[in-house]
Specification:
Strand order of the largest sheet: 4-3-2-1-5-6-7
Number of strands: 7
Helix content: 40-55%
Radius of gyration: 16 Å
CATH architecture of the largest domain: 3-Layer(aba) Sandwich
Structural class: alpha/beta
CATH class of the largest domain: Alpha Beta
Number of helices: 9
CATH topology of the largest domain: Rossmann fold
Number of domains: 2
Order of helices and strands: EHHHHEHEEHEHEHEH
Low-confidence stretches: none
Length: 199
């Protein structure tokens, strides 16, 4: 009984904050969990940058609606879902994820929630649980599932290491160098093959 747990951004869709940075020209918003391991620190800093520039949820959602899945991602996900159950475990927010889930044929996603004021300002965020990716794979294991996990960033490492099998996907050279024991892949075919070997 296996469940595949996948990260969202960088694995199936482009990084939302990088796309938003390109659209707004705010360079500092290009920083992601590939660069900053402390998610809480990263998000607080992002919210400060948004506040400085007078940007809110609407502006981010306008950009997200134009984001398409990475080339080959939908086919990979469909093929995987024919074989086994798949859950996307992401540190993104439901207010960001919904348009992307529609483009991926509505897979199951576990993510977090933004706190938004009436004028659309993002005032804070609520994490579903502490260390959500690790906590989720441990919970799935506690009810009899073996997890197979893949992601690209620092915040994916705990769920990858805690799983029966775990793989890096299109990660940075630094993460590959720091965690040489983890297999790293660049194509969906390679990742599918590696996951399939454990099913």
């Amino acid at each position: 009984m296996e469940i595949v747990c996948l990260d969202l951004e960088g694995v199936l869709v482009p990084e939302i904050w990088i796309e938003f940075s390109k659209k707004t020209g705010i360079e500092e918003l290009k920083k992601t969990t590939r660069d900053e391991p402390d998610y809480d620190k990263l998000m607080k800093w992002r919210l400060e940058v948004l506040k400085e520039h007078g940007l809110g949820l609407k502006e981010i959602q306008d950009v997200i609606r134009k984001i398409e899945p990475l080339e080959g991602a939908l086919e990979f996900l469909n093929k995987l879902r024919e074989k086994t159950q798949v859950i996307i475990i992401s540190d993104t927010f439901s207010q960001f994820a919904t348009p992307l889930m529609e483009k991926l044929n509505w897979p199951t996603i576990f993510c977090n929630s933004l706190e938004v004021s009436e004028d659309g300002t993002i005032t804070g965020y609520k994490m579903r649980v502490e260390k959500s990716k690790l906590t989720t794979v441990k919970a799935l294991q506690s009810i009899g599932y073996d997890t197979i996990a893949s992601g690209d960033s620092y915040n994916d490492l705990d769920m990858i290491k805690a799983s029966k099998a775990g793989f890096l996907f299109r990660t940075t050279d630094k993460i590959k160098k720091d965690f040489p024991e983890l297999k790293a892949f660049e194509t969906y075919d390679e990742l599918f093959e590696a996951i399939n070997n454990y099913l």
